[in-house]
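Here's what a typical entry looks like (V-type proton ATPase subunit a):
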Amino acid sequence: MSLFRSEQMEFYNLVIPRESAWDVMNTLGYFDSVHIIDYDPTLPQINRPFSNYVKRCDDVLQKIEQIDSEMRNFKIEKSYCPDVIDLLKKRNGTHKQFEELEQDICKVADDLEHQQQTMNSLQEKKNTIRENLEVLRNAVAFQNEDSEEASLLGFQKMVGVILKEDELRFKRIIFRITKGNIHVEIMDIQEQFIQQDRRIVQKCVFMLFYPNGDLTQKKIQRVIESFSCNKFDIPTSSDQHAQRIAMLENQLNEADQLLHLTITQINKRLQDLAEIKHNCSWIEEMRILVTKEKYLYMNLNMLNMTNSVFHGQIWLPQGQDQKIQQALRSLHGNDKQIPSGQIQECQTQLTPPTYYKLNSFTYPFQEIVNTYGIPRYKEINPGLSTIITFPFLVGVMFGDVGHGLLLFVCGLYLTTEDARKSIFSGIVPMRYMILLIGFFACYNGLIYNDFLSIGLNLFGSCYNLVDGEYELQEDCVYKFGIDPAWGASANQLTFMNSFKMKLAVIIGVTHMTFGIILKGFNTLHFKNYMDFFCEFIPQFLLLLCSFGYMDFLLFLKWSTKFEDTKDAPSVITTMIDMVLRPFDVPEKPLFESGEQQRSIQLLLLTIITFCIPIMLITKPFIFSLHKKNHHQYQQIPSQVPDEDANLEQLQHDMQKEQSQPHSKLSIQQHNEHDDIGELIVHQSIETIEFVLGSVSNTASYLRLWALSLAHSQLAEVFFSMTIASHIGEGGFFGTIGSVVQFPGFALATFGVLMCMDLMECFLHALRLQWVEFQSKFYKADGYLFKAYSFTNIKTNEEDD
């Protein structure tokens, strides 16, 4: 069971001659089982041997991105790579492959850039000719009597084209710099213009009349230059005017033909790049191959180069060394000129990485655990139990048969191939979690007997309606869930409120008890017997004798038949009296006799009282005795990548170093607890946190009751405010009213319950999983096994 505990890891030294470094790393990349340790994480990338290659790969990837951007501009679809490993095996080359890729990609990028510049210059030329034509065609409109008069009075004119969006700002600035001594005429150009950045803009022709003067002309000239406007001259005679228009029309036709030809060439070139060569488009193939080279050199930089040999340290899952050695021998056998790399197993004090074999089903649940913290090496992984407990907790809060079925159907749809190509592709990895949440929501909805706020009479009610009152049939028990008769009772809300609150407490105590049991298994696995006797057993007994006893009373009260409900004792009152009045005989006992209940509660209270000092002082006391018997203590330095040391490994190394018989109790040695005073403070905090946490955590599970009650009440409100009255009315008008009101009911159900409330339940379940459950046993101070594998190379489709 690789998901229960981490895979067994083995430590190896990796030795690679420089001549075969690329070939060895290329061979290891096809295995998903090598974790390379960076020999100096603080060393900057620029100071590493192959930093230049990494930079060149980045430059080439940038050029590929530019080509890809151009393909998107031309709306050219490319084919993504369905299998990266298959492509890499087909295109497997040598260490000189990157130079060939670099040359090919740079040549294509340079050719496209040149064609792009040609297209931009032709587009700019075409725009300029069009602007000149528009000025000449609209110049007649400006040649009125006023303009002729202005010319006779010594006014000058200036004509040009400006962006429509800059028109008001242009007129305002011109008016200010000339102090109003100017006349501005504007005429819109109907046809739109395409800019070099492919923006489609609107432009307009302007004509300025201003008094003669060099200073005014220079000011206007600077404003026009700041707006990047084009100025044009207007011929004085009509013949010159007609000749200029004819000449510009010919130039426009030529520019348009050249531009169309250039765009066609670029489009054809890009179409060639989008053609499938092996199993994807050429451009995507180049991107994957260059990304592989970058990934290879970045991992090669993690090895220490001494003279002409690379030395490194790696972690391998147990049993993978034979495959690696066989691959390295095959590499040397295929080419005798390539010196082979070697791996050598050795001992280390480094803490191994945590490695689990995941699949599409277990991945989302493990991600929930990893978000809180990575499991310590070989400790019990909460991800295994999370597969059931997390969807169940959400289902308790979201319990409704109708809503659960909708969620279950959504999960089924996400498992289909169509979902991967739809807008819901982002939540496809969560498909199995959604499926389980829907299943447990249906399950809990059957327990609550709640279907869209309507009760279901699936097995026949045990109550008969007699004279307006419900009477219970003798020896009748509803087969599963709540009897539907409670849905019509006057105290339905009070009953469901009490039931869900008690159910939440029972689930919470069971969940926390399971967490403490897992802590006991962890202590036994690591042979940490001090924690087993001084922490696990007292904590288990304390929780069992307090809140476990409370759950027992709840079940006992449910199984006891009272002639009058007023005679039923309150469980909360019983628990309070157990602490405040332990020697008094209960007035309303749940046991056969009050004296028997008092004796049992005294015994439980005594156990609780003894458990607290055991947790508080036992470990510091044993630690102080151990220090007195071993004055010559040497602390072994920890090389764990996290701050906390691996306690069990540390003690094992200490025993091996001293070579002396020790007590069977494992002495837990924390780096930060070398002083007895610090250990006392730490143990005091741990004890107080557990005792108070037992109360607060149990109360925290009441969110199961609160959110479940809120969900059912919201569903009832939406149903009663929309279609309930029309369904009860019946007939033609009732049917019409139900049809009219149904969209509102569906929208409220989907928006509030299926989206907002589901997200709320999800977040509260995360809180219970992380804080209330995992805090009982989970250290979360490990680090993940990061395999050096070409499967980590993602396609653009996966990134999107």
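The mean pLDDT is 86.

More examples are in the samples folder.
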